[in-house]
Give the backbone structure.
Amino acid sequence: MIDLNEIHKLPTILSNQIAAGEVVERPASVVKELVENSIDANSSEIDVTVENSGLKLIKVVDDGNGIDSSQVQTAFLRHATSKISEQRDLFRVRTLGFRGEALPSISSVANVKMKTSTGSIGTEVEYKGGKLVEQKASESRKGTTVEVASLFYNTPARLKYLSSPNTELAKISDIVNRLALSHPEIAFSFISNGRELLRTSGRGDLLQVLGAIYGVKTVSKMQPIKGKDLDIKVSGFVSLPELTRSSRNYISLILNGRFIRNFPLTKAVIAGYGSKLMIGRFPIAVIKIDADPALIDVNVHPTKQEVRISDEPAIGKLISDAIYDMLRDKQLIPDATRDFKKPFNATPHQFSVSTDEQAKTNPPLFAVDSEPVPTISQTNVTPVVVKSRDDLDSSQINQFDELLKNEPSSVPVFESNPVDISTENQQEGHHNLDQPEQSELVVETGFPHLNYIGQVHGTYLVAETADNMYLVDQHAAQERINYEFYRKQIGEVSDDQQKLLVPIVLDYSTSDFLLISDHMDLLDQLGIHLEQFGQNSFIVREHPMWFKAGQEEDTIKEMIDWILSDHKISVAAFREKTAIMMSCKRAIKANHHLDELQAKALLKRLPECENPYNCPHGRPVLVKFTNEEIEKMFKRIQDPHHTDQEII
């Protein structure tokens, strides 16, 4: 039993395992440390191979400088390094590693084999649980090969906190991608269970590396940026505002060849776009920063991904200005013809709901992008000139009357998808158009029966009851109606699917592809069936019937973005987000003028909602003005102490 009052030095293996808790969090951490060692060894080619998401095997092969046989065992000692030798070296670090903790930490929690050579006789060593098992001569190929097997075999508690195999593999892929972006002059390959996930040419072409990771379609929308001052140089590629993602994870900051995480500089990237980005959307960017090492302190984080920069605001401004200057000279109007290239769907509406089902499903209101309202046909009619009362009995007037009788009504005819709110009113509207609705409260919700008066600025509906006046936000009102419809539709996924004439192909980076694959069952529950198509792509051949025509691809991408930004999203939260998104997409917008039939139908459907008072985002649907408040505004009600006239 340990005497808690006695201070003693920890055994070497135990201290290395403690250090491993900081340096080796998961398989991706091992890959990062080993590949960074290979980069520091001036390698021109690095091959990474993993099995079982790195838990069974991690193998890194490089063609770097290698380690002399006399120094191999020293490399496995804690704080043994060739990269710094004195205190002042900490303030001019140009390598990725310098602490000498990686190899002893890894070898303390795994079985490690290393083969290395400087070009002469090679050396092979094997460590198990931090102890040297064997050392012998090996082949003389210049470079180093490190194999890490049975990771965390002697620390089983660490295994409990690892994620699913695909998630761990995605994290490894993300590390390799970042390192490849940081060093396009090195040829990288990444293989998992015999399947190649990444290969770069090593020609120093950053755009080629971007294409290998994100795909050719993404690269076509990336633009170069440049900027510099006396001490700092900024370069890289950023996406046009039309190409965005749902999280900041696609912004890569590379400082002197080291991938870092820095929130102020990430904000500077976003600030460079100004108001050109949609709220909640972020660009894809690779920003390379070359700065004097004296301005940077990398010795502040165990994994060295967070650094201190003495001139951070200046670097942020340089990045923002470079992005702003690039966008200022660019034509930012998206290519509209890309939508015309898609096959035209001969069926104008994807589904309809009968009037009898209306009360059950509470479907969304009319589509905003409906067909133009038909007008009176233009028949060739001879102009009629009336100069006196006698001219009213002429044959031309009689002929005109006959033509007019045969013309269709000028009342607008609206589409009936999914349920035509105007058709519903047209059946009763012609008879009750001028009859005010009752102003009693609906018993179920306490929501008033609103009598429509008019519309303000194409955005707000004015309505009244016996005692109050109301302003209704038409977008928020229809968003609430649509939300409750889609929430029900999404919760009752059916087998009804709309086949696509041309399937949708979705391209992702390897890390994203693996994360999506791990959550395909979640997408299946909402009727989105993805099939693997190529290395890092999915194909969609059909979609649920409740998708809005023309927005199928965008809707699927947005739903997948939620999974990528929140790996632990529940089915309930996923359905909630989807219902909110669909309700917003199909709601009428501000500055859209409604006719009387449409406005009355909107007000009639609103009380049927479970919560008619707020839109799905929490904004109010309507506000109330009481008669008393209105009379006070016009000074029709005055306080008693103001009624007496002042005697002069």
Q: What stands out?
A: The chain has 21 helices and 24 strands. The mean pLDDT is 76. The longest strand covers residues 497-507.
